[in-house]
Amino acid sequence: MRNRILLYTCDSTDGRQLTREQLFNGWYVKSSLNKRISKLDSSLEGDVVIKSSILFDRENDLGAANISRCFYEVQAVLEESKME
């Protein structure tokens, strides 16, 4: 489990992605695993708002800093591609 990374997006087809994001955030905050599992969030805004997050063990062999850097680099590339 330590080396797994979970990526999820909050489905936006019915316009309830913000509600889903709040629900998932609440579960994470209340979970006893939030001391072991890190959560990073992303929001891409365009015609619709796309909310996504990753969850990973802080002891992941890839390193928390490396995982965070890669996640936010991908977000930046996606943001830049919207402007083209």
Question: Can you tell me about this structure?
Answer:
The structure is a single chain. With 84 residues, the chain is α+β, with helices and mostly antiparallel strands. Helix content is 39%, strand content 29%. It contains 2 helices and 3 strands, in the order βαββα. Strands 1-3-2 form a 3-stranded antiparallel sheet. The protein is flat. The model has no long low-confidence stretch (mean pLDDT 90).
* Sheet/helix structural class: alpha+beta
The major beta sheet can be summarized as: 3 strands, antiparallel
Radius of gyration: 14 Å
| SSE order | EHEEH
Oligomer: single chain
Write the layout of secondary structure elements.
Layout: E1 5-10, H1 17-30, E2 37-45, E3 49-57, H2 64-82
Antiparallel strand pairs: 1-3, 2-3
